Amino acid sequence: MHAVKLLIVDDDEDDFLLTKELLGEIDQGYQLEWAPSFNEGLARLSQSSHDLCLMDYKLGAQDGIALLRQAQNAGFTGPIILLTSVHREDVDIQALEAGAVDYLVKADLSAEQLARAIRYALARSEVERERVERLKAEAENRSKSEFLAHLSHELRTPLSAILGFTELLINKIIDTESLAHLHIVHRNGKHLLGLLNDVLDLSKIEAGKLELELQTICLSSFLCDIYFLMRGAAIDKNLELRIEATQPLPIEIVTDPMRLRQILLNLIGNAIKFTEEGEVVLRIERVLEDGTEQILFTVKDSGIGIAQDIMELIFEPFVQSKDTYAHPRAGTGLGLTISKMLVARLGGAIRVRSEVGKGSEFSFSIDPGDIAQADSALLTLNFDMVGEKSTIVPQLRGRVLVVDDLRDIRLLIGHFVALTGLEVMYAVNGDDAIRLITAEAAQNRHFDLVLMDIHMPVMGGHEAAKRLRQARFEKPLIALTAAHMKGDMDKCFESGFSFYLGKPVDQSRLYECLTRYLPLVPTDANSGAAQGRVILVVEDDPDALQAMSALLGLLGWQVITATSAAVALRKAKDYVPDIILVDVNLPDMSGYAFAEQVRALQPATQIIVVSGEEIDKQRAEDAGISGALLKPVSLAQLEKFLK
């Protein structure tokens, strides 16, 4: 603890010596400095280098009250105690109003009184300083959060248009060369979005604003997506990319898939980036850590390795080595920093082992939820099935209002919605939306769902949602926002929104949301017309699945696919298909067992099994299976059978 520095401002040297003597009796090791005049006192106070000032009331022709007022303007931040020869109530009041923390009479002053006054003044000053610093920090955090929300909105909004219209063209253009160019634009747009997310995510994590969205995910399908996303980069460098697991793993786990994907893509991306020959392997294991079961992911490469002197630095933000661990397109330098923080949020820890010239191994564990009794199976990944896919567009019924102040985004989202067969109308802000909803209701025309941006001029989404709910509008309100901060979702629900979609709006997630709240187009089951009807094809062989999907597409069916029973059950619940075509032999469940579970979920759905051999008719009947097809299946057979 540093010695307390005291400034005594007194034009009477005898009084200064008496005060000095009292301070000597206290024996606290004070560092004293004397200013014998008003002007010299003001000069010393303006330096603000003292912890406390003892100031005489009378300073020649001027008084201490005037110096008190000027001291604060001059920049002195410490407490000031006023000393006077006689007690006067009016002087006491003036002194306190001018900023003095105490008022002492010299004639009655003892060492103990002076010590107590100094001690209390310093203690109060410290408390006040801490309070001011806390308020300042809170204000800075609020400003930072508001800035991040604004920056996120301003940058994600144009990216929404870029990625959205590119995806739209990908789904419409069949020219091979143009399609390849569009995929390049889309990938680079995603890369730009990734860089933006890195900067924003780091800031959100540090500010405690990052919100996790825990979901149940199929581990096999999730890892297939990871493999495909990184396969191109590995092929470009002639590297082998492998995903392996030597023990049964839970079929499903509970985690935040977006954040887990972000960690894995960062680690695998780095491994590929810094490996010139050999392989990159992602290994998944089930481990016991501190008495709880966790899933351990390990990314191992045969690359250049990391020098020991910078091993600890690689997790620091914005740090990129210029030699051992560098790359001309190394991004923001935030990938490992964010990965470490995200792993901690997902309930685990990240570790690294490396040797220069031999490669690196990054491993991290996550909390997968309660997997003690979960179904487990050996990992099977159908890599050949994964490709640049067009989004399946459901056919829905109803009227939707799209509310966004930006014309490009408004029309893009409206176009996506219109592809489902829904009737679409538009509003440019919350006030316009309320006016339009009211006007349509007066004509007995009602909206079945509203997609509304949060940040709009005139009236934003939150205010509009509150007013609509107060006016007894009960249909689903879906919030669209580019500001992904912690608490955003809760705030949306508090305002009256039913669901929440982030920008850039993902077309698949938009359709999942729409199918949650709006009915599929009804079809005449006896007409035999396939147009607009939904069929779910469950097949673990990628070539067979691709062929079956193509044939059904030619017949006018809306095809939804799944490569495992676990994924198929989830899609059966989400899409409520008219018919399910299921292979008898699936990796995680037999077709018969699958049919029994579907029958419990969707009694009206017809289930047809496809098999390479004659099926067990009694077992099929018991499972609720409607019919069977023998492989290979031709277009004519399908058309005749499905009619």
Structure description:
The chain has 643 residues and is of the alpha/beta class. It folds into 4 domains: 5-109, Rossmann fold (3-Layer(aba) Sandwich), CATH 3.40.50.2300; 215-369, Histidine kinase-like ATPase, C-terminal domain (Heat Shock Protein 90), CATH 3.30.565; 399-517, 3-Layer(aba) Sandwich (Rossmann fold); 534-642, Response regulator (Rossmann fold). Helix content is 44%, strand content 20%. It has a 5-stranded parallel sheet, with helices on both faces. Strands 9-12-13-15-14 form a 5-stranded mixed sheet. A 5-stranded parallel sheet has the order 18-17-19-20-21, sandwiched between helices. α1 packs across α5, α11 (430-442) runs parallel beside α12 (461-470) and α16 runs parallel beside α17. The longest helix has 60 residues, at 111-170.
Task: Please provide a brief summary of the model.
Helices cover 44% and strands 20% of the residues.
User: Could you state the CATH homologous superfamily of the largest domain?
Assistant: Histidine kinase-like ATPase, C-terminal domain
> What is the number of domains?
4
The N- to C-terminal Cα distance equals 89 Å
Please report the total strand number as a whole number: 26
The residue-averaged pLDDT reads: 80
Indicate the low-confidence ranges by residue numbers: 321-332, 384-390, 523-529
CATH topology of the largest domain: Heat Shock Protein 90
Total DSSP helices: 19
The class by helix and strand makeup works out as: alpha/beta
At the first level of CATH, the class of the largest domain is Alpha Beta
The major pleated sheet works out as:
5 strands, parallel
What is the radius of gyration?
35 Å
Helix content: 40-55%
